[in-house]
């Protein structure tokens, strides 16, 4: 179980309508469960949207990507059927909260076949893998990677005494 933000607040500026505050917030389910504690919030001052319609789905996906870090795990196996997107269930684990559905988000398979190298004796063909997983009820979203881009001119509101530049 990891720590992830309970809320995401994204803000942007539209130079065509500078008085309109392009500010949107997305909250996780159960964020009010903190009681008097302040939930952890991520603030993005440059939300990368210019209209409200584009902001809502963008912010939802960004917040879901952060939410994926709440419950994560990793494991080792020899099952060839495991692949990203596969959902599996743990049953009868000694630590009860782990008895749940989990979704694989990354896996690395390793195989070994000594007979192909001309070795007669020893170990037979083996397969092993290492995988990582998240909560099986969550929608997996890839982590957001900032791309360097030039969106155009940066706008600013200059304040100060009149006549000075």
Helices and strands, with pairings:
Elements: E1 7-12, E2 22-27, E3 41-44, H1 52-67, E4 72-77, E5 87-89, E6 101-112, E7 126-135
Parallel strand pairs: 1-3
Antiparallel strand pairs: 1-2, 4-7, 5-6, 6-7
Organism: Xenorhabdus bovienii (Xenorhabdus nematophila subsp. bovienii)
Pfam families: Phage_GPD (PF05954)
Protein name: Type VI secretion system tip protein VgrG
- Shape descriptor reads elongated
Poorly predicted parts: none
Q: What is the total tally of β strands?
A: 7
The number of helical runs is 1
Q: Helicity range of the residues?
A: under 10%
Give the overall pLDDT as a whole number.
Answer: 83
Summing up helix and strand content along with how strands pair, one would put the structural category as mainly beta
Q: Could you give the order of strands across the largest sheet?
A: 4-7-6-5
Domain module tally = 2
Q: Kindly, what is the distance between the CA atoms of the first and last residues, rounded to a whole number of angstroms? A: 53 Å
Radius of gyration: 24 Å
Largest sheet: 4 strands, antiparallel
Proportion in β-strands: 25-35%
Topology order in helix (H) and strand (E) letters: EEEHEEEE
Write up what this structure looks like.
This is Type VI secretion system tip protein VgrG. It comes from Xenorhabdus bovienii. By secondary structure, this protein is mainly beta. Helix content is 10%, strand content 28%. The strands form two sheets. It has a four-stranded antiparallel sheet with strand order 4-7-6-5, with no helix packed on it. The model has no long low-confidence stretch (mean pLDDT 83).
């Amino acid at each position: 179980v990891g720590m992830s933000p309970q809320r995401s607040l994204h803000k942007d500026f539209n130079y065509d309508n500078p008085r309109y505050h392009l500010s949107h917030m997305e909250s996780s389910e159960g964020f009010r469960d903190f009681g008097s504690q302040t939930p952890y919030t991520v603030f993005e001052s440059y939300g990368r949207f210019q209209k409200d319609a584009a902001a809502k789905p963008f912010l939802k996906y960004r917040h879901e990507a952060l939410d994926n870090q709440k419950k994560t795990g990793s494991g080792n196996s020899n099952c060839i059927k495991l692949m990203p997107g596969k959902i599996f269930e743990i049953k009868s684990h000694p630590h009860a909260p782990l008895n749940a559905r989990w979704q694989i988000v990354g896996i690395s398979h390793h195989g070994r076949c000594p007979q192909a190298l001309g070795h007669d004796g020893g170990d037979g063909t083996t397969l092993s893998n290492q995988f990582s997983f998240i909560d099986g009820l969550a929608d997996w979203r890839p982590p957001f990677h900032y791309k360097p881009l030039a969106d155009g001119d940066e706008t600013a509101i200059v304040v100060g005494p009149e006549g000075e530049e």
